[in-house]
Amino acid sequence: MLRFAPSPTGDMHVANLRVAIFNYIVAKQKNEDLLIRIEDTDKEKNVEGKDKSILEILSLFSIEHSSVIYQSENLKYHQRIVMQLLTKKEAFSCFCSDEKLEELKVEAKENSKPDVYDGFCATLSEETVFNCNAPFTVRLKSPKENISFKDGLKGDLEYKASEIDAFNILKHGKTPTYDYACAVDDMLYDISMVIRDEDYLDNTVKQIHLRNIIGYDKKIDYVHLAGVLNASTGKKISQKDKETSINYLIQEGFLPSAIANYLVLLGNKTPKEIFTLEEAIEWFDITKVSTNQTTFDINELKLINIKHLELMDDLRLSKILGFADADIGKLAKVYLEESSTINELKTRIKVIFEEKTSLEGFQNELKTLKECLENAPYYEDFNDLQKYITKETSLEGKFLDEPLRYVLTKADNGPDLSKIYPLIKNYLGDIIK
Ligand code: GLU
After folding, report:
1. Distance CA 224, CA 203 (A)
2. Domain boundaries, the chain
3. Does ligand 1 have an atom closer than 6 angstroms to the CB of 185?
4. Is 239 a residue whose pLDDT tops 90?
């Protein structure tokens, strides 16, 4: 089983979704289930409603999963295993104050040493621990031997035992830390492969160490993905960036299929540029994803979105735009010359149906043209309509072109009217007003 393990602490962004998509594709390829684990143990950081929003996004992107669990529901297992570790003396209670821990951090930095706990509380006698009333955390003893593992992208990695922290597994308040809860749950749910951001490499080492201590010998494969940068900040994508939030992109009118396509393209050599996730399952290779950071650029996403809009069924597109006529879908596709999202298309098409009352410099021509069109017979072909207008009004050149474009589209430039007219000719009554 694979898992996607979001924290409900903020809006899901493109890098989070990329991890979810990769987990989904690989689970399908391996014919294994995908578990969604909401990592909600840090009550202070949780933001109400974000779990629902994440789950809605996953279903919007058709990321099928076998179940959803909330990590906090496993608290009793997390606590029970801590007690076993304490009994076996693999873990110890730590009474060190935040101030002391901060001092250790500063000292390590000054001496360019790894920031690891100095082990003081591991040396306390049972009696001292028993009699101590101070608040405590529980730490796992650091390993005696180096820890090595093979990452699916980064190859063989080895971490020195002396640099692996005696990390906290239980916080004040007896709730589990991220590293600990994550490692326990990966065992509980029989996870076979973990795909996540490379920021978690150091956590992986701690999580392997915990599993070793517990004696869990099933191998978990790891793939740590290089980070995704935001083209507009040049920095790693964060939950604070607005334009990389999935909800923002959807509200702006990007199609889920285009967003998913773009996220698989990022840092990847694909056999084609435009594809569905189902197609990607056929050829995607997680071990070939770039080990270099990639950059999310909304302008590149716009180009992919245009291609997905072009491929969409005309009637479906028209319905999304609030009509029920394939011609309006076709009209929207003509406007993809100058628009790239559903919202831009909606605005563009809405304008066509608005009143056209004044056109600077062509006020008389506009009036004449409107009267002429109101009485004009029905023409299939735009050239025939133009000929008729010229005959009836003697308007020509820019005195015909500019007011005619305005009256038909309420714009002063845009796609060829001969492409637009066939798609709006049945609506002239609503358009010419
Ligand atoms: N909860 C972490 C996150 O939201 C994921 C950690 C993991 O995949 O193990 O980024």
Report:
1. 11
2. 353-431
3. no
4. no
